[in-house]
C-alpha cells in the first residue's frame, strides 16, 4: 500500500490494462502503489457508458479538478489579515473582525497556518512565541488522543 496522492494518466492506463486481464482491485493497487480503495474509487467515479477507459477516465478527472474552486480566500483578504496582525491583533480577533465586517470567514487556525507557512509577515516576538505555544499545545493534545 503506497502513498500516491493523485493518479497519473499512466496509472489509469495500468488500471485499465490490469482490469481487462481480470486482476482484482487489491492486485491493481499493489502494482500501481496505492490503496485498494483508491482503485475502487477511480473505477466508480470515472466509468463511462462503455465501462472504464483510461483516456476517458483521465479526461473526467481533469474536468473535475478544473471545476473546483481553488482559491477560497483572496490575496486581498490575506493582506487585510496581515495588516491587522501587524497592529497586534490576535488571529481570533482578526477572524471575528473579517466575519462581522467583510463577511469573509477565515478560521483562526487558517490564520495561524498561513503565518507559519509565510514567515515574511513582520509580527512581533511575543506573537511568534504565542504561535509556537499554540502549536505545541495542539501537538500535546494530539499525542494524548493517540495514547488513549
What characteristics describe this protein?
single chain, 148 residues, mainly alpha, two-stranded antiparallel ribbon, 3% strand, elongated, disordered C terminus
Characterize the structure shown.
The chain is mostly helical and 148 residues long. It folds into 2 domains: 9-67; 75-147, no CATH class. Helices cover 68% and strands 3% of the residues. It has 8 helices and 2 strands. The chain has a two-stranded antiparallel sheet. The radius of gyration is 22 Å and the shape is elongated. Mean pLDDT is 79; it is low at 139-148.
Average of per-residue pLDDT values: 79
Using the CA coordinates, give the radius of gyration: 22 Å
Structural class comes to: mainly alpha
For the biggest sheet, the summary is: 2 strands, antiparallel
Q: Give the count of helical stretches.
A: 8
Q: Give the CA-based shape.
A: elongated
Query: Segments where pLDDT lies below 50 for 5+ residues?
Result: 139-148
Strand order of the largest sheet: 1-2
Cα distance spanning the termini: 26 Å
SSE order: HHHEEHHHHH
Q: How many domains comprise the coordinates?
A: 2
Secondary structure tally: strands: 2
Beta-strand content estimate: under 5%
Helix percentage range: 55-70%
Q: What is the multimeric organization of the chains shown?
A: single chain
Amino acid at each position: 500500500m503506497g502513498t500516491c496522492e493523485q493518479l497519473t494518466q499512466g496509472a489509469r492506463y495500468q488500471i485499465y490494462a490490469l482490469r481487462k486481464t481480470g486482476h482484482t482491485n487489491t492486485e491493481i493497487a499493489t502494482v500501481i502503489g496505492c490503496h485498494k480503495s483508491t482503485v475502487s474509487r477511480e473505477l466508480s467515479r470515472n466509468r463511462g457508458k462503455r465501462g472504464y477507459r483510461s483516456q476517458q477516465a483521465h479526461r473526467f478527472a481533469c474536468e473535475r479538478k478544473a471545476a473546483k474552486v481553488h482559491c477560497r480566500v483572496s490575496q486581498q483578504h490575506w493582506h487585510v489579515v496581515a495588516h491587522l496582525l501587524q497592529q497586534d491583533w490576535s488571529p481570533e480577533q482578526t477572524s471575528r473582525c473579517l466575519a462581522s465586517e467583510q463577511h469573509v470567514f477565515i478560521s483562526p487556525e487558517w490564520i495561524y497556518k498561513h503565518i507559519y507557512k509565510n514567515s515574511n509577515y513582520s509580527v512581533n516576538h511575543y506573537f511568534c512565541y504565542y504561535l509556537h505555544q499554540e502549536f505545541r499545545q495542539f501537538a500535546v493534545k494530539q499525542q494524548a488522543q493517540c495514547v488513549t
